Amino acid sequence: MQHPTLRLVSSPIFASLLNWLDAELPTEEVPIEVTIAAMDAAGVSIATLSALRSPQYGEMISNDEVAGWVSEHPDRFVGLASADLGSPMASVRELRRRVNDQGFRGLRMLPWLWEAPPTDRRYYPLYAECVELGVPFCTQVGHTGPLLPSEPGRPIPYIDQVAIDFPELVIVCGHVGYPWTEEMVAVARKHTNVYIDTSAYKLARLPAELVSYMKTGSGRQKVLFGSNFPMVTPADSLAALDSLQLDDETRGLFLAANAQRIFKLG
Description:
The protein has helices spanning about 5-10, 30-40, 65-70, 90-100, 110-115, 125-135, 155-165, 180-190, 210-215, 235-240, 250-260; strands at about 45-50, 50-55, 60, 75-80, 105-110, 135-140, 170-175, 195, 225. The chain is an alpha/beta fold. It has one domain: TIM Barrel.
């Protein structure tokens, strides 16, 4: 999830997505209770809350803001840090501080924002630090809704190569990889520490190859539920859960247990 700051919702980067939203943009800062209410409406007990930074517009959601919300509601949120790809070593120190001092549970970066695929050398110090800290690297795969190139979201060659270079790195790939979902599933099958989350997709729209993978022996451990709030609410995301026809164990892994294991949520 991302809590919708005014800087986030008013960013020109996301202007092309506004026709997806059935709501007016806020004119004042939104209280964190709005995001909590969206979780409560869907029975979501805890969520990863992500910072977001871009080279053009800076901190659309700052690490400080995420730290504050997590501090106010430690039973509802865990933080995911963002980083400045233009200053890799400063970002390594920032990530280390956020994890060690404030309990952040991972790093999240969107390659399309930086127009730099995950194999860009500037990510590599951050990957090494994630391994040392024992936290996942969370990213986006698949096409890009905003009007920027989609190429950085290809699972092959980019996620595949990073997983080869950093086999200990836990990589959580959001947005299912469409239209390259088969590539994404292949990469998750190949690499022990590569996972897929369903953020930005209502479950009714999940590609069939991903639903099939979720029901396999290894795939049950590899797919996590996500909403990508505020673009999609948790309730809307979950509305078609029964249509997936998951058995009770697989449903529990998808909705909770896989995330609890990967993000060390108790």
